[in-house]
Amino acid sequence: MTNQYSIKELEDNVYVIDEMGKDNIFLIVGDRYCFLIDTGFGLLDLPKIVHGITNKPVIMANSHIHPDHASGNNQFQEIYCGRYDEPRAHINYNDKR
Q1: For residue 4, how many C-alpha atoms fall within 13 Å in the half-sphere facing its CB?
Q2: What is the DSSP string of 25-36?
Q3: d(CA 37, CA 79)
Q4: Strand ranges (DSSP E) for the chain?
Q5: pLDDT tens sequence across 8-27
Q6: Phi-psi sector, 95: left (phi>0), alpha (psi -120 to 50), beta
Q7: 3-state SS assignment for residue 76
Q8: What is the pLDDT of residue 3?
Q9: How far apart are CA 85 and CA 45, in angstroms?
Q10: Cβ–Cβ contacts within 10 Å for residue 81, how many?
């Protein structure tokens, strides 16, 4: 994990998390939940970062399943993605085996 990231509030309750200048992860904070779009390369401790912004439960979805959008999926219990991407959503891109 790295701590090289920045957070910018784009509008009220809409954030972009810049993962080392390589990837953008979006967070929308609602009344009851927050919605995280993508998990990037998996280099960040996203649950910790998100809970630094809000304590609301996280709903997580991938825009699509490429390594730069989904490599941090293993940090979350439940992931939403398109039905054609679903089989690839379970790949652990960080596995060194």
Answers
A1: 8
A2: EEEEE-SS-EEE
A3: 10
A4: 5-11, 14-19, 23-29, 34-37, 58-61
A5: 999 999 999 999 998 999 99
A6: beta
A7: coil
A8: 76
A9: 23
A10: 19
Answer whether 68's CB lies under 8 Å from 22's CB.
yes
Is the Cβ–Cβ distance between 2 and 49 less than 8 Å?
no
Task: Tell me what the mean pLDDT of segment 50-66 comes to.
Answer: 94
Phi, psi torsion values for 54, nearest 5 degrees: -150, 150
- Cβ–Cβ < 8 Å for 24, 16: yes
Contact predicate 25/36, CB 8 Å: yes
Enumerate the β-bridge partners of residue 6: 18
The SS3 call for residue 54 is coil
CA angle 12, 15, 21 (to 5 degrees): 150
Which residues, other chains included, contact 49 with Cβ-Cβ below 8 Å and sequence gap of 6+? 5, 7, 17
Q: Which of 28, 3, 34 is nearest to 13 (CA)?
A: 28
pLDDT > 60? residue 33: yes
